[in-house]
Amino acid sequence: MAAAGAIPRPVRGAPIIESEVVAMVIVVFCEVMFFAGFLSGFSLIGARAPAGWWPPPGDPALPVAATGGASLALLISGVAVFWAGRRLDADRAGALRLLWGAVAFATAFLAYQVFEFVRLVSIGFTMVSSAHGGFFYTIVGAHALHAVIAVAVLSWAVRRLSAGDLRPPAFTAVRMYWYFVVGLWPAIYTVVYL
Amino acid sequence: MTRALVAASLALVVAVPDVARACSTCMDPTEGSRALLVVTIFLSLLPIGMLAAIGGYVWWRAEQMRRLAAALPLLERP
Fold first, then answer.
1. Contact B75 A9 (CB under 8 A)
2. B54: containing domain
3. I want to staple A88 with a disulfide (CB 3.0 to 4.6 A). Which of A4, A71, A100, B15 is the partner?
4. Taking CB atoms and an 8 Å limit, are A32 and B46 in contact across chains?
5. pLDDT at residue A61, as a whole number
6. How many CB atoms lie within 10 A of CB B40?
7. Interface pTM (ipTM) of the complex?
8. Which CATH number is A19-45+64-193 given?
9. How far is Cα of residue A53 from the mean position of the Cα atoms in its chain?
């Protein structure tokens, strides 16, 4: 098996980009447009609301600082995956440790989100309490769902890497999805929370 | 039929411009639509920008492979 980060020797008839990577590019492209639509709708409704009416006066203040802390955990996981990809050829054991660390940090982020959702619902902020609530749970919930899938896929990839039977393009595709989930969150945090 | 439809559409634009302008995704232009403009520009440029980035990456990869192929003998695919 070729090393994950090595430049491959050219092979006659080989594709320029592997099919796993092409598939993930298409997925990420669609997902970016999906979230861009939601974030644009959220921004538009906020901009069109009368002054002082967005978020609606009855809605609770979102936990900006605590969510900012949780965001750091997600960003750290993104950096860990990046460095793991860079170190995979030179230090496989270290790279695998970094990848498991990334899974742990992302799981912590998700655990915080579950806690936040439960707390907000318990004080009456729900999907149907206002348009703000509907957008909040749709956007943040959709991202959380993507993060759950990303954690599951990364865990699968790390196990396969440990066993030495993961093709480098598949690992590249997994990392691309991870970068998408991590990179999207600052945009969501800025638009929805700040 | 097509000519009649075009003529009716033009007559509508001239005679009743407000009705002709109505559409499900448009908003009242007098309502301070700067946010709408920004969002429209953002959503229009985003896919174009992503496609340009993907195209650039494919071109760069092709160039990289071409240079490698020139520098190294090609392997036969197993």
1. yes
2. 2-71
3. A4
4. yes
5. 87
6. 14
7. 0.77
8. 1.20.120.80
9. 30
